[in-house]
From TrEMBL:
Keyword Transmembrane helix: no
Full protein name: NAD-dependent epimerase/dehydratase domain-containing protein
Short name of any one Pfam family annotated for the protein: Epimerase
InterPro entries according to UniProt: Epimerase_deHydtase, NAD(P)-bd_dom_sf
Domain NAD-dependent epimerase/dehydratase stretches: 9-255
Key words of the record: NAD
């Protein structure tokens, strides 16, 4: 359980997919804690989804013993970040805000430098100057790039990113290690593997495919379907974050009398990579079951197999044994169950349950 002395938790990216689910989960676990949220509410994807998530947070707050303070602002705004830390003095910080997406980083690199590099630096600096007990931050399976060895382990070399997005996430890990070493700040990085679920990001394949199929458009399946992804349902991701939040890496000194960096890194992934063609099959079945698409929908007529895209990798596959060893947890929600929950949410959100 969380330390009873915890008074404030700061979650960046609170209107985001993972962030909003984390905040609502914390409402059910904590008592008398102020949860501070930050999000810039940008229009990288449909802002109404972010507004929906904030509304869900506000609903959950009414039934909790916690309070929620939301700031609309940007990680790259150092004055704002400094103000939040000085006013609220969070003991635990969970940095989930970032410019996401591999393909978008090819066309819009500025967004990634501002949010993922400068923004993360601002968080680290604020942690340095305030009594933060634990910084948990989002990394990504993208850091593994084109690694051939599977499953991917945090012990693997990850020095050859194939996208700017991946490079910024690897840089976060390096920055965090340096700050852990220099300033004895406990930091834990989490490499997420293809997170999906209700009210997720429309740029992710399962969501984008659904939108296209509903509109009668053709979906493109990259690398001619010869890709595998380690899909992880958002509830499993959030459960992993919550467990990690409660156990900061230990502060201790080495033989030289200097701090050993209180730094940790974990994968959170399902550990069962799914072929993209199988994934599309399951998604299509669940969309029909939920009534999002008619039973006689011709999926084959709306599928196109295309070559690999720049920045993509053929496989993601998490070795999450360290997470299970240290926290007694591994993701358990299977792909069909997760896509069923997404399809049912999609039906209600976009079609009013009709």
């Amino acid at each position: 359980m969380f330390d009873n002395n915890i008074k404030n938790v700061f979650v960046t990216g609170a209107a985001g997919f993972i962030g909003s689910n984390l905040v609502t989960k914390l409402f059910g676990m904590l008592d008398g804690v102020e949860i501070i949220g930050l999000d810039n509410m940008n229009d990288y994807y449909d802002v109404s989804l972010k507004e929906y998530r904030i509304a869900e947070i506000e609903k959950a707050e009414k039934n909790s013993k916690c309070t929620f303070k939301f700031y609309k602002g940007d990680l790259a705004d150092k004055a704002l970040i400094t103000k939040i830390f000085e006013e609220h003095k969070p003991e635990i910080v969970v940095n989930l805000a970032a410019q996401a997406g591999v393909r978008y980083s090819i066309e819009n690199p500025d967004a990634y430098i501002n949010s993922n590099m400068i923004g993360f630096y601002n968080i680290l600096e604020a942690c340095r100057h305030n009594p933060v007990e634990h910084l948990v931050y989002a990394s990504s399976s993208s850091v593994y790039g084109g690694n051939k060895k599977v499953p991917f382990s945090t012990d693997d070399m990850v020095d050859h990113p194939v996208s700017l997005y991946a490079a910024t996430k690897k840089s976060n890990e390096l920055f965090a290690h340096a700050y852990s070493k220099l300033y004895n700040i406990p930091t834990t990085g989490l490499r997420f593997f293809t997170v999906y679920g209700p009210a997720g990001r429309p740029d992710m394949a399962y969501f984008g495919f659904t939108n296209k199929l509903v509109n009668g458009e053709t979906i493109k399946i990259f690398n001619y379907g010869n890709c595998k992804r380690d899909f992880t349902f958002v509830d499993d991701i959030v459960e992993g974050i919550v467990r990690v939040m409660q156990k900061a890496p230990e502060k201790k000194n080495g033989e030289d009398g200097l701090p050993v960096p209180p730094y940790a890194l974990y994968n959170i992934g399902g550990g069962t990579p799914e072929n993209l063609l199988d994934f599309v099959q399951i998604l299509s079945e669940e969309l029909v079951r939920a009534g999002v698409l008619p039973e006689d929908y011709d999926f084959d007529a709306h599928k196109e197999l295309v070559p690999m895209q720049p920045g993509d990798v053929p496989v993601t596959y998490a070795d999450s044994t360290a997470l299970e060893r240290d926290f007694g947890f591994k993701p358990t929600i299977d792909l069909r169950t997760g896509l069923r929950r997404f399809a049912e949410w999609y039906k209600n959100f976009y079609m009013g349950g009709k």
